[in-house]
Amino acid sequence: MWPLDPSQKVVLRFAVSCRVLTLVLQALFNAIIPDHHAEAFSPPRLARSGSVDQLVEGLLSGLSHWDAEHFLFIAEHGYVYEHNFAFFPGFPLALWVGTELLRPLCSLLSLRSCLLISAALLNSLFSVLAAVALHDLGCLVLHCPRQALYGALLFCLSPANVFLAAGYSEALFALLTFSAMGQLERGRSWTSGLLFTLATGVRSNGLVNVGFLVYSQCQGFFSSLTVLSPLRPLLKLMGSVFLSVLALGLPFALFQYYAYMQFCLPGSAHPIPKPLLQLAVDKGYRIAEGNEPPWCSWQLPLIYSYIQDIYWNIGFLRYYQLKQVPNFLLAAPVAILVVWATWTYVTTHPWLCLTLGMRRSKKSETIEKPDPGFLSPRVFVYLVHAAALLLFGGLCMHVQVLTRFLGSSTPIVYWFPAHLLQDQEPLLRSLETVPWKPPAGDSLTGQKVPRNSIMGLLYNWKTCTLVTQCILGYFLTYWLLGLLLHCNFLPWT
């Protein structure tokens, strides 16, 4: 990935510009629009805030709302309340490391302010690197530099933008996931497994990524399988699958065991400051020193399952209520994108899908020259992953989170719109052929310099096709609305 080629420099510049604009706009919206009084987690501040703290809060508090408050609280105080265990420790740990790097500022700022600055800087960095990682992955999988570039540029305008900037774990998860996928495409299975394992420590849906490792191992098994000695490859496959499941499941298992030690084993609880104890009394939050929770007596005592069930009411079809229709409408665009992508791919490659991507043609034993772009056979496993996430999220989760759930987990949300733009937008062809002067300092004499064609489409909005206007309209509307609503404690995805 390093050093950056000209296309990656385009992605990097656009990603940095979008991150800077995001931080400026959230501060502006938070300043001019009063916060909605939402019934959300709001712990007391234990340290006094000075004038500099108030300045930091005024500039960045839009990034600390809703679930971000949980991550900041965990990074500052640890896992105090039972419902805190819905949030995995990877991102709070990253915030703590970032705060340690800001230690010279600690004499001027409270720990809360340092954590807020750390969240803003780290997630900006993670989002920029995730865009570059997605471009790199697109080049490896799609074998179409233009679609890879368009997909990475669309990620910079992601509908989940506000969650890639706020104190949420999506940006770090996207970086680790896209990087792991890229390493696996390069055949570096051990590095990929390590990155996927780290991603599981950030978000629970990282467990699903074990499918990529298993699928890669199955491909290797079938390619090396011989009639005379099938036992050795089979044993190797079984061992590899076992190690993959063990590695990716380890962060989840350790986190559940830590919760079990805190709540189910006497004498394991840590001291809790009095204001936080009082909050537990006032709000009815369960702490480790109280009565033993019911999940401790389960045959498989998983606090995560208990919290999702009791606190968030997550379960099969539980969200299918008339009052949730607006939330289904919010999730509809990203769901339509994934369903449309699945239908396009399956109808183009029915035999490939029936054979689980192992064979492309029913008539030939050998794999034909792959199509470039989204319809490449190598996209199959990514499409299955996206469809599985959509199916689970649509049936069992709060559907409004599908936008950030899919936007930080699968490249399909960006590759398929890139495919549609290249396939159905004639203006892109003219934009690619227009002479383009490289930015000052770039020495690219004799090379074809890429340009930010997405910005070119926005400049020529009125002449774009309806499909392009729908795609860019959706991305930009959610990009902006998310900042406007989320940063003022208004309901969003």
How is the secondary structure organized here?
Blueprint: H1 6-32, H2 51-60, H3 67-77, H4 90-101, H5 111-142, H6 145-156, H7 161-165, H8 170-185, H9 189-200, H10 210-224, H11 231-264, H12 274-283, H13 303-310, H14 325-348, H15 350-354, H16 380-396, H17 402-407, H18 412-424, H19 426-433, H20 453-459, H21 466-486
Helix pairs in contact: 1-5, 1-6, 2-5, 3-4, 3-5, 4-5, 5-6, 5-8, 6-18, 8-9, 9-11, 10-11, 14-16, 14-18
Which key terms come to mind for this protein?
21 helices; 493 residues; mainly alpha; 62% helix; globular
Unreliable residue stretches? 441-447
Rounded mean pLDDT score? 90
The tally of helices reads 21
Strand residues, percent: under 5%
Please identify the structural class as seen in this structure: mainly alpha
Shape: globular
Characterization of the model:
The protein has helices at residues 6-32, 51-60, 67-77, 90-101, 111-142, 145-156, 161-165, 170-185, 189-200, 210-224, 231-264, 274-283, 303-310, 325-348, 350-354, 380-396, 402-407, 412-424, 426-433, 453-459, 466-486. With 493 residues, the chain is an all-alpha fold. The two termini are 32 Å apart.
